[in-house]
Amino acid sequence: METGYITTPFGRRPMTLALVKHQVKTEEAVGDGSVDKWRVFRDISDARSRLGLQDRALAILNALVSFFPAVELSSEKNLIVFPSNAQLSARANGIAGTTLRKCLGALVEAGIIIRKDSPNGKRYARKGEEGDIEDAYGFSLAPLVARASEFAALSQDVAAEQRRFRITKDRLTIVRRDVRKLITVGMEENVPGDWAAAEACFIDIVGRFARRPTLRDVESSLDEMSLLHEEVSRMLETNEEIAKSDGNAIVNRCHIQNSNTESCNELEPRFEKKQGEKSGPEKQAERKDEPELFPLSMVLRACPEIGTFGPGGSIATWREMMSASVTVRSMLGVSPSAYEEACEAMGPAGAAIAIACILERAGHINSAGGYLRDLTAKARRGEFSLGPMLFAQLRANAVPSKVSA
């Protein structure tokens, strides 16, 4: 095979630095070994997404490889094939001429083949007196030999990524099922907790599933759904701990104060109120103002700093959360008009969550007011959701998944 000579394309086809690098790299990498042409072709097919190749380009490459007479590609042989466009089209199931030329260009740009054009741009070969090919013009398959190990590594990497995708997708399916059923249990059993908010969060996550997800998409969805699973499990576990605590306390009081079992009927087991929870008409009014976005406990775990601005240095209700966000808004330099617009676009609770997240990242944001206005504009266009921002903050804080005893 000829070495040490850089060829340029015929006619108006431009020569680029990338083509020069492909040729030089091929000349340097071609050794004395040989490779199975169909094995290399399979590796390229598996790694086509990494190489930027479409299925039709692979069909053309398959046709080009089929014109090489031997199964083994070796640097000792002439690796140039010279079929006409008509012959290539016939072996590629009658692909159109325009598409054929585009596919050939894509293969050249990807460094899979190298052009070796004749003086008039035609593809042909000259044979010597003994019938051996002395010179040929067409497409060189030398990159298949030079980059065989690279293509094999890419193929293995793609296969590993596909395995990770399948495993991650299976995990997402399981976590999604678990969250759905745990929320249903909480609602049907009337367990105290922000179950409407948890369900709204679940619907928000599922609604952002991509139709053709990548590995990154599935991993992101799994992270968000796993965090919601932790929150739902936390609400159920907390309820169970409260129930056990109440039950033990009642048994102890009955045992110490009165051995008469009838007195125990007056002290039926009940769930204790959550911190800051109100009762009666005041509680019902509070629930009307409570948004069905995300559980308040989840928001406070993701954005703990805003808690210090609540009454007594803590936040127990959404009303206190929204009141604290007004204080933080002023501290961050967010104008009242910017905050009002955010409330109109995201709702008062949504704006409070946005302010809480901005407070957590205040050191990385130059203008809190400008940042909030940008989020508001995206929310009005339907391009922004609080879920990803809140879940990213949860991951950043790396909050322990179990409730401390």
Proportion of residues in β-strands = 5-15%
Compute the number of helices. 17
* Arithmetic mean of pLDDT: 78
Question: What is the 3D form?
Answer: elongated
Count of domains: 3
| pLDDT < 50 stretches | 246-292, 399-405
Question: How much helix, percentage-wise, in residues?
Answer: 55-70%
Q: Can you give a write-up of this model?
A:
There is one protein chain. The chain is built from 17 helices and six strands. The longest helix has 43 residues. It is mainly alpha-helical. It is elongated. Strands 3, 4, 5 and 6 form a four-stranded antiparallel β-sheet that branches. The protein folds into three domains: 130 residues, Arc Repressor Mutant, subunit A (Orthogonal Bundle); 109 residues, no CATH class; 120 residues, no CATH class.
